[in-house]
Amino acid sequence: MGVKYVLSEPLPPSWWAKNKAAVAAVAGLAIGFYLAGGCDAGSGSTPHHPSPSPSITQPRSPSPKES
After folding, report:
1. 44 in the Ramachandran plot: left (φ > 0), alpha (ψ -120 to 50) or beta?
2. How does pLDDT run across 12-25, given as a tens digit for each residue?
3. Which residues in the chain show pLDDT less than 70?
4. Structure pTM?
5. Rg (Cα) of the chain, in Å, rounded?
6. H/E run at residue 54
7. What values do phi and psi take at 3, rounded to 5?
8. Shortest CA distance to 47 belongs to which of 38, 60, 56, 59?
9. Is 15 helix (H, G, I), strand (E, B) or coil?
10. What is the separation of C-alpha 4 from the centre of its chain, rounded to a whole number of angstroms?
11. DSSP letter string over 19-49?
12. In the 8-state DSSP scheme, what is residue 66?
């Protein structure tokens, strides 16, 4: 009776098989940051700056009604 099957050590997983989840996570984060930063950044528009908040100006001299 001869040898039917030869058992051997399986090959270790490749780099891609080990790091597939990490590569997908980094790619997802990069895409998320790109989309959150705005896709129209390259359209030549100026960056958005907050406008100054309105303020109340006080008159320097009393009004004629108070005298």
Report:
1. left
2. 999 999 999 999 99
3. 1, 38-48, 62-67
4. 0.44
5. 34
6. none
7. -85, 125
8. 38
9. helix
10. 56
11. HHHHHHHHHHHHHHHHHHH-GGGGGSPPPP-
12. G
